[in-house]
Amino acid sequence: MVALDTSTPQLKVARNWIDAYVAIDIDKIDAIHSKNYKHQTSPKSIGLPEETRDEYTQRLRRMFPLFTKFEVRIQHRPELTG
Question: How far apart (Å, rounded) are the C-alpha atoms in residues 26 and 47?
Answer without folding.
Answer: 24
